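4.2 Preliminary Data

To establish feasibility before requesting continued support, the project team ran the inverse folding procedure on a target of 385 residues. The structure was first converted into the token representation described in Section 3, and no sequence information of any kind was made available to the design step. The complete token record follows.
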């Protein structure tokens, strides 16, 4: 199948989808072991949690523990002994086949990691024993790269950074994907100093980081969450908190004299995202921006068709409407990780961790994540010897 390209050139859908999702910065190329082998001695094979087929990762018959071979280490590669892996909604969405244009099982689960450098290529800039963090997915089971639900994982050196000092692996693993997501959304929004911003899902994994990072940027932050988490969001620095269980945030804020400059949608994806956009138009200033990381499909799935349809619709809105609509796909890189580490070291960013599950309870960890009831991050600790 093809879609219209530039001029008379037709662009294959498969090629187009690959280009679209490569912008996430998470697709890492696998290399032939013979061409990447370095002078490092081979260590013992590790183990990993592999999603063997499309389905529910809380199902023990689908997410299984398997051996993972010690990889060949190229000159710019870093082999990390994983100390903790934080989970994200994209983990289970990929496992359930909802983002098939990116990848589908079988693959090793997990993006976010923190751990210790076990071995490093000569051109990587890292040394054995350093504590590091980042997020790199495993795109297919034959690739040695990525997949943080593993005792060891190979990562490109441009997608890893030194872990913030005085931070546990569980905390550091909770920084990367959500923190970089916030930074990319901020770059898209480009708010002026002191701008009023509204954060939907302020008590979630992305939201708790967003409140802190945006306060560090000097913005006036309004957080939307349930009443039971209002105290937490306020403690993180929100200037105002709205309890969505007690009042409709759009009606409440529409009555304010001052409008909102940017609405950040970090709440669960799906139909609620479309509803949030419609509500946001009531509170946004003229030219105000709505930034979302959610898909518009009711089940949270992303297809080439839905992605392109969303882009076309957003382009129309941004050209002719009073407000701007943007969907952001996170791009991972070491510079942003370093920025997050600096904020953490300065005391301006502290991960909020809901629960740390032991390695063997990974299925329960996914069940908790998919319940939508976690406050902050769900983390799985390393396998103990």
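Position-by-position output of the design step:
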């Amino acid at each position: 199948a093809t879609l219209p390209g530039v001029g008379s050139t037709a662009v294959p859908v498969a090629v187009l989808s690959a280009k679209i999702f490569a912008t996430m910065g998470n697709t890492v190329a696998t290399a032939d072991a013979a061409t990447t082998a370095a002078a490092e001695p081979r260590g013992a094979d590790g183990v990993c949690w592999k999603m063997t087929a499309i389905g529910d990762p809380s199902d023990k018959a689908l997410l299984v523990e398997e051996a993972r071979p010690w990889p060949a280490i190229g000159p710019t590669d870093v082999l990390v002994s994983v100390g903790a892996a934080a989970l994200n909604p994209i983990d289970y969405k990929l496992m359930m086949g909802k983002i098939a244009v990116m990848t589908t099982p079988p693959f090793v689960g997990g993006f976010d990691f923190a751990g210790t450098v076990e071995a490093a290529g000569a051109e990587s800039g890292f040394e054995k024993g350093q504590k590091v963090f980042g997020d790199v997915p495993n795109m297919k089971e034959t690739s040695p790269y990525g997949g943080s639900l593993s005792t060891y994982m190979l990562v490109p050196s441009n997608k890893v950074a030194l872990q913030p000092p005085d931070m546990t692996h569980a905390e550091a693993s909770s920084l990367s994907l959500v923190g970089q997501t916030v930074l990319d959304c901020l770059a898209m929004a480009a708010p002026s100093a002191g701008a009023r911003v509204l954060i939907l899902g302020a008590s979630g994994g992305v939201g708790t980081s967003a409140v802190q990072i945006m306060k560090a940027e000097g913005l006036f932050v309004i957080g939307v969450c349930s009443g039971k988490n209002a105290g937490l969001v306020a403690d993180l620095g929100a200037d105002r908190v709205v309890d969505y269980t007690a009042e409709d945030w759009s009606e409440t804020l529409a009555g304010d004299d001052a409008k909102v400059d940017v609405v950040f949608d970090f709440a669960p994806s799906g139909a609620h995202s479309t509803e949030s956009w419609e509500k946001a138009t009531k509170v946004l200033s003229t030219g105000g921006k709505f930034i979302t990381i959610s898909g518009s499909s009711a089940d949270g799935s992303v297809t080439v068709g839905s992605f392109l349809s969303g882009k076309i619709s957003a382009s129309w809105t941004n050209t002719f409407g009073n407000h701007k609509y943007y969907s952001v796909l996170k791009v991972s890189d070491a510079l942003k990780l370093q920025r997050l580490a600096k904020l953490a070291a300065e005391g301006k960013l502290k991960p909020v961790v809901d629960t740390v599950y032991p390695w063997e309870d990974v299925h329960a960890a996914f069940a908790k994540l998919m319940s939508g009831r976690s406050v902050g991050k769900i983390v799985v600790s390393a396998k103990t010897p």
